[in-house]
Amino acid sequence: MTDAAYLLVHDDREYLLEPGEEFGTDLGVIEVPEDVEHGDTVETHLGTVFEVRALRGPDLFDHLERTGAPMMPRDIGLVMGHTGVAAGDRVLDAGTGSGILSTYLARAGASVTTYEIDPDFADVARRNMETAGVAADVDVRTGDIVEALDQLTDAEPFDLLTLDTGDAADVVARAPDLLVPGGFLAVYSPFVEGTRDVVLAAREAGLADVEALETISREMDFSDRGSRPATAGVGHTGYLVFARVP
Q1: CA distances (Å), 11 to each of 8, 14, 75, in order?
Q2: For 183, 200, 230, 236, which has the most beta carbons within 10 A of its beta carbon?
Q3: pTM score of the predicted model
């Protein structure tokens, strides 16, 4: 993995820029040197100094091009924590979207094959892989994974299967043929109906350790009066199903 872009930061300003890029702001024109590195500083033509930072996962979530609502970092963290994805793993993914999950997995050292049915979304995801420096580790394929299942089951099995699609249950039914023994399944769904379908499909397929979770987080408020959870809306994002090939 190489850094194809860097984050340039000044106070609360952040810009995602590539080496050699020129970018105009109200603080002056930023000219990024070709040989820029993490920890350098870059000065605009008006004298404003920006710090150069290497990209981390949350930076990618905040700054990569969006094609819709990507998985939140807390959901991605659960996927990575519950499946133990690691360097050298082979991941099969579907529902690429902007490619946020794929970038996290690839930056952890996994090799990812991901399917996106919308050609325009797939093009955005490929650009995002370039920006994140993981294009060599993520194969973004345009098409429906369901139509490719026969071909995929004849290939080398994967260590992890991740899905964020409306027809996830159809893919889950073939999980034993797609994964190595002990391989993991992780499915994200925004709706409880889809989650139920996935759980039932996983049980029918004979998968083990089937578990469904709702992801919720709440911020905390601290004041002179005391400390308590914030009264703003509960931070629900969606549902995750995990399972494993026996």
Answers
A1: 10, 8, 29
A2: 183
A3: 0.87
Distance CA 141, CA 116 (A): 6
**Hey, where are the domains in the chain?**
6-54, 59-244
Pick the closest to residue 179 from 244, 87, 114, 106 (CA basis): 244
Q: How far, rounded to the nearest angstrom, does the alpha carbon of residue 26 sit from its chain's CA centroid?
A: 32
CATH architecture of 59-244: 3-Layer(aba) Sandwich (3.40)
Rounded Cα distance between 137 and 142, Å, is 16
The whole-angstrom separation of Cα 15 and Cα 164 is: 29
pLDDT tens profile 187-228? 999 999 999 999 999 999 999 999 999 998 888 889 999 998
CA atoms of 171 and 205, how far apart (whole Å):
10
Task: Please report the DSSP string for 56-116 in residue order.
Answer: -HHHHHHHSPPSS-PPPHHHHHHHHHHHT--TT-EEEEE--TT-HHHHHHHHTT-EEEEEE
CATH number of 6-54: 3.10.330.20
**Calpha distance 190→207 (Å, rounded):** 22
